[in-house]
Amino acid sequence: MKPFLPAILHKLGWKSKLALLAPTLLLAGVAWRHWQGPEIEAETVMRRDFVQSVVASGRVEAPHRVDIAAQITATVLRVPVVEGQVVRAGDLLIELEASELQAGLRQAEMALQQAQARLRQVTDLQLPVAEQQQRQALSNLNNAKAQLSRQQALFAQGFIGEAALDQARNALELSDAQWRLTQKQTESLRPQGSDHALAEAALAQARASAEAARARARYARISAPADGTLIGRNVEVGDVVQAGKQLMTLSPSGRTQLVLNIDERNLHLIALGQKALASADAYPDQRFPATLAFINPGVNAQTGAVEVKLDVAAPPAYLSQDMTVSVDIEVARKPQALLLPLSTLHEAPGMAPWALRIDESGRATRRELRLGLRSGGHAELLDGLAEGDRLLLASEAVEPGAHVRIKPGAVGPAKR
């Protein structure tokens, strides 16, 4: 007797035979696909130049800012500059009303002229007159001495009396007193004398008063102390400004720096002189070079960050004070390194990372790895895999030893 199923199939038509075998074939296909495993996405180990970088954001900072204020209380007459304007050192920024200051300056200059005239009077007039008077007094003294000598001789001969001799003595004493007085006057008017010193002191005081008046008058014209860009203006024509009130802010021209806060965990990676590429958040596609120039020796206890500064040798024209910037500091470079995505790693932060490699039969095999540099979502592979190996993403729920199928077009390279 023939087997039951073949006998039945022999009697049925081909359509009936197909309908009867379809469930069996479907079950066989499902079993085959189950044995092959689920469809997954994979990454490929690639060999590329690899740069490790520390990424941080910060701000643009000029060496310093200059707050410009008035030194007197006055009314604003003119403001010939606008915010954002580039100015040169000495350019007028603000002009204040200065009629009272100008009057004080004219008064001080007149006092200076008077002091100069007084000194000239001492040296050019009074001193020569005093010297002439001294010479005349000396001549009178010599005549008085000669007269007394003659009178004494006549008195000894009995030709004159005691009264005539006393008169000659008095004349000599008077001439001597006059000579001594003219001598003192002359000494006083000479450069080392008291009258000359008083005239010079008065002149110096007048000069100081005039210079002070000029300085006060200059307060009415507020000029740029250095080349730079005005990044703030808080004054208008007609305002009455107070002494010390900030009116403008100047960002001086000079070395431009980028100030960043780096996580202290990256402190061992950075060093002075390292190169970086930066971009302003407002212009993300325009990158410019910078150089690490300063590392703060202290760590912020609250944030765990270290402040660093980078010099920008040729800042782009659009770069402005306090702009937010993103910076990639290159801390290491490996040419033609084997790379794999961090997304394929299991226990990535630990000491024994591993990944699931898909072999030629589609089986997921666990591979222990030794890694080097890590940056930008990728790691340098030192040992454990070869170029071209396909890896499962760590997010896939696949056990080691299981079969998997790679989705068509779902194999990505390990990008830089």
Tally of individual domains: 3
The chain-level mean pLDDT equals 84
Are there runs of 5+ residues with pLDDT below 50, and where? Answer: 24-35
Question: Would you give the CATH topology of the largest domain?
Answer: Elongation Factor Tu (Ef-tu), domain 3
Shape, per Cα inertia axes = rod-shaped
CATH architecture designation of the largest domain: Beta Barrel
Main sheet attributes: strand count, strand direction, barrel closure: 6 strands, antiparallel, barrel
Task: Compute the number of strand runs.
Answer: 21
User: What is the chain-wise order of helices and strands?
Assistant: HHEEEEEEHHHEEEEEEEEEEEEEEE
Please provide a written account of the structure.
This protein has helices at residues 4-11, 14-36, 99-157, 162-189, 194-218; strands spanning 39-44, 46-61, 66-69, 74-78, 86-87, 92-96, 221-223, 228-233, 240-241, 246-252, 256-263, 275-280, 287-295, 305-312, 324-341, 354-358, 364-368, 370-375, 378-383, 390-392, 405-413. A hairpin with a 5-residue loop joins β16 and β17 (364-368). 34% of the residues lie in helices and 33% in strands. The protein starts with a helix and ends with a strand. The longest helix is centred in the N-terminal third of the chain and has 59 residues, at 99-157. α3 (99-157) packs antiparallel against α5 (194-218). Strands 2-11-14-13-12-15 form a six-stranded antiparallel barrel. A five-stranded mixed β-sheet has the order 17-16-20-1-21, with no helix packed on it. A four-stranded antiparallel β-sheet has the order 3-10-8-5, with no helix packed on it. The model is unreliable at 24-35 (pLDDT under 50). The protein is α+β, with helices and mostly antiparallel strands.
